[in-house]
């Protein structure tokens, strides 16, 4: 075969389920940009016309018909270029997740996904039918017939074929069958969710495949918080014969992020432009990038006007506060003041002019002032230390800060119940009730602020608390989103130190010197979370062994004993407590506000970990512990 050169491009798109207008606009922008760069083949992500997260909408026949109409619209934009994009099609009772290839305004065919994603957050077999290897058929839409299946295409004599996201993650991946057919280029339209450190795995799948199958590999992922919980990092990769040619910056605030490169095909292709393999990953840097983008997308896509937060000065609420501040900083950095203000959809024209007139050093703080409102809601049990921590942090990032006490409300409810029961409530007899009423009366006022501002109320629950139900329902769980519900407490604490030291959030100095405490019991008791529960490190270890590694209670104990994390007697007590609280509190996990998937593991019952609300609570297994 003669040497051929193709300009390949992949574009990450920030799509939204069912938002035809915005999704098509992004697709069109990518095609226009590719055309100005003389691209031969443009790859767009999986299911990008509809959005990946349409869930049961994929089962609606009318929805597939509407999607096909939009595809025909896109077809007309694809002049002098080949465009490949993810779209679902319905044939009889079956729905297929496909990559459609359009060249010069003609649809050449649809390649259907062979391996459906079914682990963790993915439930594709609920909607889609897998396609058998090596089979090509035809189907008809509006009197026109199209090929569908395991198709090999050709561009200027270069043979190419697809793997659609999960296809590449299986040992029996389609690439195994593409190679003997002479395929020199594999395209992978993806919707691969973000998780800490996952990009390394993805790099290996792409680069190693290009080495093993001696081909070029073009990969394009979705971008942003598409549908509420799941975040996509917008990764675009181009590799050939084991060498990486292009990689983009992940988790950017753009709608379209296109990368392209000229790739040479032939017996001994010349690979002139290679880039270094992925540098070591810093999970803290990844976390803040993902969290910032997730918050921004959630806010603008839900058409909310900023965030409201009950700020205790403790680690969880402080983490939420700096995440919003960093969202603004990164957004302005990436889009410029005008771009950020416009995209946020919450500012008037006069606002925009005002922000543009500000000196650069003031603009982020002023924007935070408009986008984040915090309130400290003290009680007689609150300390000066947490008040100072909350105030200093809010002021240092520029957030609006209110403070008030809730003792009157606590007293009001307590005396009502005392009147009804005709007895006094005491800490000896009514400990948890007296704690919960404080957490609960903080909810109405903070919700009022959120209503007034049309803002999102941030709930501050973390994964460690969620595991054991260490929160008051309709109290500190109140909120519309739970940004850090997927992150464990130990990670949050070290992350806040990193945010202070590496990103300069000096207002975190106070919280970084506090012990986590609910401050719900009288201060003389020196309540701390770890005294109530167990050391967070151990709680997290048990949680991971139980639910990620799927061990039994006894196996968890054996593992902890092997690692000598605590005296043998304490380990048994901790494991007993964990499983008992875990089972009792499934209903609470069902009621948390939606949280983001940041780790490749989650307790969220609606998208990762299913567990019954009512259960035997491991009574037999715990009774038999050795
Ligand atoms: N299976 C089930 N399905 C549905 N509902 C169920 C249920 N089991 C109990 N319930 C209901 O749950 C209620 C108890 O739940 P809830 O009222 O939330 O209270 P509860 O879980 O009993 O106690 C809350 C715990 O969270 C701690 N906390 C509270 C606030 C803040 C913080 C902090 O870290 O800052 C910690 C507090 O120290 C205490 O240990 C019961 O009264 C009952 O109505
Ligand atoms: N004094 C307070 N003022 C305002 N909000 C509070 C106050 N105390 C508690 N809260 C709210 O209740 C939530 C739960 O408290 P919790 O103690 O679990 O978290 P935290 O105080 O942020 O962190 P830490 O557990 O590290 O102290 C807080 O994040 C905050 O939203
Ligand atoms: N959309 C998909 O097929 C995603 C599944 C794949 N394992 C991933 O996480 O990247």
TrEMBL record:
Gene3D superfamilies: Carbon-nitrogen hydrolase, HUPs. The active site is at 46 (proton acceptor), 113 (for glutaminase activity), 165 (nucleophile). It holds the Pfam family CN_hydrolase. Deamido-NAD(+) binds at residues 436, 465, 588. GO terms for biological process: NAD+ biosynthetic process. L-glutamine binds at residues 192, 198. The keyword Magnesium does not apply. It catalyses: deamido-NAD(+) + L-glutamine + ATP + H2O = L-glutamate + AMP + diphosphate + NAD(+) + H(+). One of its GO terms (cellular component) is cytoplasm. Its EC number is 6.3.5.1. It is an enzyme of class 6 (ligase). ATP binds at residue 460. Residues 6-265 form the CN hydrolase domain. Pathway: Cofactor biosynthesis; NAD(+) biosynthesis; NAD(+) from deamido-NAD(+) (L-Gln route): step 1/1. Belongs to the NAD synthetase family. In the C-terminal section; belongs to the NAD synthetase family. Catalyzes the ATP-dependent amidation of deamido-NAD to form NAD. Uses L-glutamine as a nitrogen source. This is Glutamine-dependent NAD(+) synthetase. It comes from Pontibacter lucknowensis. The lineage of its organism: Bacteria, Pseudomonadati, Bacteroidota, Cytophagia, Cytophagales.
């Amino acid at each position: 075969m003669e040497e051929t050169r193709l300009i390949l491009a992949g574009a990450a798109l920030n799509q939204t389920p069912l938002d035809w207008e915005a999704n098509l606009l992004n697709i069109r922008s990518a095609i226009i940009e590719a055309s100005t760069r003389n691209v031969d083949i443009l790859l767009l992500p999986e299911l990008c016309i509809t959005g990946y997260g349409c869930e049961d909408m994929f089962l609606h026949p009318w929805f597939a018909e509407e999607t096909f109409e939009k595809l025909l619209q896109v077809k007309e934009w694809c002049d002098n270029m080949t465009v490949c994009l993810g779209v679902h099609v319905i044939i009889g009772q079956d729905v297929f997740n496909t990559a459609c290839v359009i060249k010069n305004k003609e649809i050449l065919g649809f390649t259907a996904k062979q391996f459906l994603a079914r682990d963790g957050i993915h439930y594709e077999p609920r909607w889609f039918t897998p396609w058998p290897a090596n089979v090509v058929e035809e189907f008809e839409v509006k009197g026109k017939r199209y090929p569908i299946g395991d198709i090999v295409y050709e561009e200027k004599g270069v043979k190419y074929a697809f793997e659609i996201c999960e296809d590449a993650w299986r040992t029996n991946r389609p690439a195994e069958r593409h190679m003997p057919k002479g395929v020199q280029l594999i395209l992978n339209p993806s919707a691969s969710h973000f998780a800490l450190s996952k990009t390394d795995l993805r790099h290996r799948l792409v680069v190693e495949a290009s080495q093993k199958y001696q081909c070029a590999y073009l990969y394009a992922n979705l971008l942003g918080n598409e549908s509420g919980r799941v975040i996509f990092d917008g990764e675009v990769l181009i590799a050939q014969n084991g060498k990486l040619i292009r990689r983009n910056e992940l988790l950017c605030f753009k709608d379209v992020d296109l990368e392209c490169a000229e790739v040479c095909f032939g017996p001994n292709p010349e690979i002139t432009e290679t880039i270094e393999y992925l540098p070591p990953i810093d999970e803290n840097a990844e976390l803040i990038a993902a969290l910032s983008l997730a918050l921004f997308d959630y806010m603008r896509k839900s058409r909310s006007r900023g965030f409201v937060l009950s700020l205790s000065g403790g680690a969880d609420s402080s983490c939420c506060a700096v995440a919003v501040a960093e969202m603004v900083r990164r957004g302005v950095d990436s889009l410029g003041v005008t771009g950020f203000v416009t995209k946020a959809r919450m500012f008037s024209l006069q606002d925009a002019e005002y922000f543009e007139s500000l000196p650069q050093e003031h603009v982020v703080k002023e924007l935070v002032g408009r986008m984040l409102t915090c309130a400290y809601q003290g009680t007689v049990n609150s300390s000066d230390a947490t008040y100072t921590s909350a105030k200093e942090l809010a002021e240092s990032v520029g957030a609006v800060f209110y403070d008030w006490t809730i003792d009157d409300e606590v007293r009001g409810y307590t005396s009502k119940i005392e009147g009804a029961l005709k007895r006094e409530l005491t800490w000896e007899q009514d400990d948890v009730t007296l704690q919960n009423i404080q957490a609960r009366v903080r909810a109405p006022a903070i919700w009022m602020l959120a209503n007034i501002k049309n803002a999102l109320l941030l709930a501050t629950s973390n994964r460690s608390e969620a595991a054991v139900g260490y929160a008051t329902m309709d109290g500190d769980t109140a909120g519309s989103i739970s940004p850090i519900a997927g992150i464990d407490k130990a990670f949050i604490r070290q992350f806040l130190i990193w945010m202070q030291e590496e990103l300069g959030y000096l207002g975190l100095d106070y919280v970084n010197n506090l012990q986590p405490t609910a401050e719900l019991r009288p201060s003389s008791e020196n309540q701390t979370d770890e005294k109530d529960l167990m050391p967070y490190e151990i709680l997290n270890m048990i949680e991971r062994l139980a639910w990620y590694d799927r061990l039994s209670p006894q196996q968890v104990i054996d593992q902890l004993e092997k690692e000598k994390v605590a005296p043998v007697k304490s380990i048994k007590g901790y494991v007993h407590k964990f499983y008992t609280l875990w089972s009792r509190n499934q209903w609470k996990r069902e009621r948390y506000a939606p949280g983001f998937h940041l780790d490749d593991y989650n307790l969220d019952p609606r998208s990762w970990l299913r567990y019954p609300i009512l259960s035997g609570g491991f009574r037999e297994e715990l009774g038999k512990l050795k």
